[in-house]
Amino acid sequence: MRKPLSRTPRTPGWIAALLLAPLGAAALDCARLAAATEPTLRLICAEPELRAADDLLNQLYRAALAKAGPAAPLRAEQLSWIRSAQAPCRDAACLREAYAQRIAALRRALSPWCATQRGAIVGDWARAGEAGFFEEFSAGPQGEFDSWQQQRPQISGGRWIWRPDCGITIASEVGLGVEWILIDAKKNAEFSVLEPGVPGVARYRLLKAP
In this structure, are residues 139 and 197 in contact, taking their beta carbons and an 8 Å threshold? Predict the structure, then answer.
């Protein structure tokens, strides 16, 4: 009696597209996928919090591909996570937990690169593009932080705090707090950060070196 042939689980087209997309690509185009039949896609596109988590994860994954060593193992790990953790989810709570765990894993994958970037934002900077909370700011080597909006002071006497996973917290005396995740830096030129909860990448170009 012949044994049935074993089959490798088929990867849905939308998963393959994400894994093979160019490094700058967006995570999900919910307008284009409005008629999607996959329950996971419908859940993500229906909830802004999940769309933001998906964008954050997508950007971290692409940063890790560029900076965390050989791409093949990371692609395999990402595909395994999609198949075993993301795709089986049938409610938003499951997806939120799956995304939180994978985002934490990707940030750990970036940590060796992060260890070399402690002073990446030191200097005077201007926003390059529309994304980004600050128009212009100055970050000092001892954690000093001042910013300007339309040439007017926005934060004076603030602080920036670095974390080993490329997290940056910017805080002011009046309670304003901004969270960044550094994903790219070109010494004495520019850097790029993610602002969790805000889609896309914020880029800043150097005005004056420290």
Answer: no
Q: In whole angstroms, what is the distance from residue 207 CA to residue 210 CA? A: 10
* Half-sphere exposure in the Cβ direction for 132 (13 Å, CA): 21
The C-alpha angle 89, 96, 74, rounded to 5 degrees, equals: 80
CA angle 88/92/95 to nearest 5° reads: 50
- Under 8 Å CB-to-CB from 165, ≥6 apart: which residues? 107, 108, 110, 111, 114, 181
Same-domain pairing of 156 and 105: no
Average pLDDT per 10 consecutive residues for the chain, totaling 210 residues: 45 50 54 67 88 91 88 91 91 95 94 93 94 94 93 88 94 85 93 87 91
Residue 16 lies inside a defined structural domain of this protein: no
Query: Domains in the chain: how many in total?
Result: 2
What span, in angstroms and rounded, lies between the C-alpha atoms of 142 and 140? Answer: 6
Q: Is the overall model pTM greater than 0.85, yes or no? A: no
Strands (E), the chain: 123-127, 136-139, 144-149, 152-162, 167-171, 177-186, 190-195, 198-208
Tokens of 124: 């005077």
- C-alpha distance from residue 53 to each of 86, 101, 163 (Å): 12, 11, 20
